[in-house]
Amino acid sequence: MTPLEITGSLGIVGYGLGAIGPGIGVGLIFASVIQGTARQPEARGAMMGTAWIGFAVTEALAIIGIALAFVFG
Amino acid sequence: MSGFLSGLVPLDTGGFEAPGVQSFDFPPFFASVPWFDKYMLQAIVSVILILAFWLIMARKNAMVPSKGQFIGETAYFFVRNTIARDMIGHDFRRYLPLLIALFSFVLINNLFGVFPLTLLPTPSHVGWPYGLAIMVWVIYNGVGIAKFGLFGYLKNTSLPAGVPVFMWPLIIPLEFVSNIIVRPITLSLRLFANMFAGHLLVLVFVLGGEYLLLHSESIVNKTAGVVALIFSMAIFGLEIFVQSLQAFIFTVLTAQYISSATAEEH
After folding, report:
1. B174/B197 Cα distance (integer angstroms)
2. Contact B95, B101 (CB under 8 A)
3. Looking at residues B232-251, what average pLDDT do you find?
4. A and B: number of Cβ contacts within 8 A
5. B96-154 pLDDT tens trace
6. CB < 8 Å to B124, chain A
């Protein structure tokens, strides 16, 4: 009896698993920006600046996943 | 009726060549000069443009600025205030030329990805972010070693203040790997992967839309092709945003690494 055989791109499955963490992370960043703006609307500018920096750093991990999924077959 | 339903059959992708790593393969222009390919040409053109821009900006200094001078001053003050002064602190002037050069170079080469004559972001070839990240690594380590000496700098980097002695075997390798080894890797891969994935996304929409519109049979596929081509304009807009953001992030992180390498103990 043939055991279960799964074919396809393992890299894309790895990317899918690797995108869970950054997805939660980016959600947390912008959730805190929204809450902070609700508490103190005049601090919005400084918070948005830091939010974009945090977004790019967190998003990098997911983007590295998709790029390496293509590079490694 | 059957003509409409036949459009719902899955498209035979035998004729469509999906974009992948091979889409980034640009052979050199002259076989005798193997290093001169499209990436190198774009980088050389970008350096000429940046040098011309900043040299012209450094020359015209009217008291009431004209439009061109205003744009240049805005760019300069953006890097100086938002990135250099806020991140590095009081002796930021030493590093300001580096940060302005990095920001200009990465921004112009990223924007080549949406510029009509080039349509290829230079950092999508991994060698370019590697080179930039190696240069930044040498600089922030060198600055730290020049200020504190080799062992002083390593102590500052690997050992934050106020850590109890029993945690040292855990903290020191962790901080060393995180600050000295992982930083250049993530710095380069962040820029490379964003440009690579973004360009791949644009290619999927444009090439897929063109294939669906011109090389498929049913009206449903052709409509999908038109929608894909129109939506690729929105993807171009997203790419402009991501490219500018990545140039900003690269410069901000460089300033942050220099700042934390030269930070005094509290």
Report:
1. 30
2. no
3. 94
4. 40
5. 999 999 999 999 999 999 999 889 999 999 899 999 999 999 999 999 999 989 988 88
6. none
Does any domain span residue B266? no
Instruction: Please identify among residues 51-80 of chain B the ones whose CB lies closer than 8 Å to any CB of chain A.
Output: none
pLDDT at B11 over 80: no
> Which residue segment(s) compose the domain that B98 sits in?
2-261
pLDDT by residue (tens digit) across A20-68?
999 999 999 999 999 999 999 998 888 888 899 899 989 988 988 888 8
Per DSSP, the residues of A3-70 read PP---S-HHHHHHHHHTHHHHHHHHHHHHHHHHHHHH-GGGHHHHHHHHHHHHHHHHHHHHHHHHHHH
Q: Looking at CA atoms only, how far is residue B1 from chain A in angstroms?
A: 35
All residues of chain A having their beta carbon less than 8 Å from the beta carbon of residue B252 are: 53
Q: Which amino acid is at B89?
A: G
Residue of A nearest to B19 (CA): A70
- Cross-chain Cβ contact A56/B20 below 8 Å: no
Task: Say yes or no: B85 contacts chain A, CB-CB below 8 A.
Answer: no
Please determine, for residue B1, whether its predicted confidence score (pLDDT) is greater than 50: no
Tokens of A57: 């750093």
**Residue A63: which of B21, B193, B248 has the nearest Cβ?**
B193
Q: How confident is the model at residue B266 (pLDDT cuts 50, 70, 90)?
A: very low
Class level of CATH domain A14-71:
mainly alpha
Is the CB of residue B46 less than 8 Å from the CB of residue B122?
A: yes
Asked if the structure places residue B100 within a domain, the reply is yes
**pLDDT for B13 beyond 60:** no
> So what's the ipTM on this one?
0.81
Of the candidates A49, A53, A60, which has its C-beta nearest B193's C-beta? A60
Q: How many domains does chain B have?
A: 1
Q: Do A70 and B20 touch (CB under 8 A)?
A: yes
Identify the burial level of B254 via C-beta atoms within 10 angstroms of its C-beta, where 0-12 means exposed, 13-18 middle and 19 or more buried.
buried
Contact residues on chain B for A49, CB-CB shorter than 8 A: 82
